[in-house]
Amino acid sequence: MLKKYLLPIFTFFIITNSCNRDYVPKPPGYLRIDFPEKKYIIYNTSCPYSFAYPEYAKIEQDTDFNTEPCWINIDFPQFNGKIHISYKTINNNINGYIEDSRKFVYKHTIRADAINEKIYSNNENNVHGILYDIKGNVASSVQFFMTDSTEHFIRGALYFNVRPNKDSLAPVINFIRKDIVKLIETLEWK
């Protein structure tokens, strides 16, 4: 007879004791990322611009079918990401290039939580432009354009070859963003 009541009593005891503690499920974790030391190399070719880029990145010629001369990709193989850089010569059409750059950035409005703009101006090297930080689960979280407003125009965009996830990509985006700022600050026209 005692056996008949033992299972319900034992079950009740387990349930009441297990509910006394605060239980919070463990949040999902992300892989640890070891970042390399920041060291820079000067990119200086026959293209009409030069800049510093990190030594842990590789520069590749853009091979897309619409590619123009001096379009390059700065590849970050360990992070599965690339900065796509396009260069245009200005022929009284700078407003069109700036507007196109702005449109590319604001296409992300649907998925973006915020879009922040930072103006850069280096009068000594005659380099002026805007860096865009696009927050949220977007395809390209950092974009920029730089120009001297008379001859040269460069546009860049950071893309990862993974599905956008702002939480897991945030450390890598912040790391590469510093490299983009270094590129902007060291950009010179020839």
* Global shape: elongated
SSE order, as H and E?
A: HEEEEEHEEEEHE
Query: What strand order characterises the main sheet?
Result: 3-4-5-9-8-7-6
Radius of gyration: 25 Å
Number of strands: 10
In round numbers, the mean pLDDT is 90
Largest sheet geometry: 7 strands, antiparallel
**Subunit arrangement of the protein:** single chain
Structural class: alpha+beta
DSSP helix fraction: 25-40%
Count of helical regions: 3
- What distance lies between the first and last C-alpha atoms, to the nearest angstrom? 96 Å
Offer a few descriptive terms.
190 residues; seven-stranded antiparallel β-sheet; three-stranded antiparallel β-sheet; 3 helices; 10 strands
Structure, described:
With 190 residues, the protein is an alpha+beta fold. 27% of the residues lie in helices and 35% in strands. The protein is built from three helices and ten strands; from the N terminus they run H-E-E-E-E-E-H-E-E-E-E-H-E. The strands form two sheets. The protein has a seven-stranded antiparallel beta sheet with strand order 3-4-5-9-8-7-6, with helices on both faces. Strand 8 (142-147) and strand 9 (152-160) form a beta hairpin.
